[in-house]
Amino acid sequence: MNNKISLNLGSGGREMHKFISEYIVKKLGNSVLNRLDDAAVLENRSDLKIAITTDSYVVSPIFFSGGDIGKLCVCGTVNDLATSGAKPYALTLAFILEEGTSLDDIKIVIDSIARTAKEAGVKIVTGDTKVVEKSKGDGIYINTCGIGFIKKGINISTHNAKTGDIVMVTGSIGNHEVAMLKAREMINFDIDVKSDVAPLNKKVESLLALTNKIHVIKDPTRGGLASALYEICGNSKCEIRLFEKDIPVEKQVLSVCELIGYDPLYLANEGCYIIICPKEAERHIKKVFGAKAKIIGRVLSNNRQELAVETKAGGMRKMGMLETMQLPRIC
Predict the structure, then answer these.
(1) Can the peptide bond before residue 199 be classed as cis, meaning omega within 30 degrees of 0?
(2) Residue 305 placed within a domain
(3) How many structural domains comprise the chain?
(4) Whether 301 and 187 share a structural domain
(5) Which residues form the domain of 301?
(6) For the residues of 120-161, what is the DSSP string, one character each?
(7) What is the rounded CA–CA span in Å between residue 160 and residue 163?
(8) Is the pTM of this model over 0.70?
């Protein structure tokens, strides 16, 4: 096998099997994946509820400050599972590779997947590899499916926000999207903003061991904080009031927004959660997520869908979903 992806790799023949053996199984192998059957057979967990999610990753460029497409695909999948209170158990992994892509880049991505899966405590159990002709793709796309299990008694959903709940975020907002702006050289001034991409599932597991009072967990990815909260308002039929002065935004992120006209409330994160819960659970969230976790608002009522921000100047600003894409292909 030479150092570039060829169409032969997607043919189902010797080169594809060599790639799977030398790169996929060698780096990601476990007792389930190593069987290489057409379907992975997982142990029966009938005593638990099952959570399942799927996602596709087309981020450009595939390497950026703080991460890469490999780390992103694992984090995005396990974080989605954890929003339901599930403990991630297994992931599928499908590559769509472009002919001519550097094999060295693919190896770096696979190593990143292996490290992040180990950090998240999740197995890659089955997958697929396809190759498209040169100029028909963009280096590498990844599709995942994640399966997790939810213990009885856990009921976390965007439909569960209640009057009187506090609204918290577990970290500063907007870092991932600004890191992508920098990676694409769309801003030409010097900043040191890294993507916040990280697996959060073990933190959620620790939180749920401390309290069963968590009503909503949501990750503010595409569309950012405002879009995610407006979705919660719709699903829970609730009115949420945010306080701009309390929303954590790093100075460099805020500076970028001011210079190019972006609104930080609509910028994406990949390692931050919105958590909605009774005030009594705040101390548990801060214990698990640390000092960066902040109260940024409250659920005022359960009789209408409304999201509003009390500005630093004392005015009131109504918010909705992001109307137009600020930056495509950020995940």
Answers:
(1) no
(2) yes
(3) 2
(4) yes
(5) 166-319
(6) HT-EEEEEEEEEE-TTSS-SEEEEEEEEEEE-TT----TT--
(7) 10
(8) yes
pLDDT per position as a tens digit, 4-52: 989 888 766 788 778 999 999 999 999 989 988 776 777 766 778 899 9
Q: Are 252 and 194 in contact (CB under 8 A)?
A: no
Q: Are 106 and 97 in contact (CB under 8 A)?
A: yes
Which of 114, 298, 84 has its CA nearest to residue 200? 84
Q: What is the pLDDT of residues 251-291, one digit of tens each?
A: 999 999 999 999 999 999 999 999 999 999 999 999 999 99
Instruction: Single out the residue of 114, 107, 137 nearest to residue 4, CA to CA.
Output: 107
Residue 318, H or E segment: strand 316-319
Report the distance separating Cα 131 and Cα 232, nearest Å: 39
Across-strand partners of 96? 130, 141
Burial letters 264-277, b for 16+ CB under 10 A, else e: bbbbbbbbbbbbbb
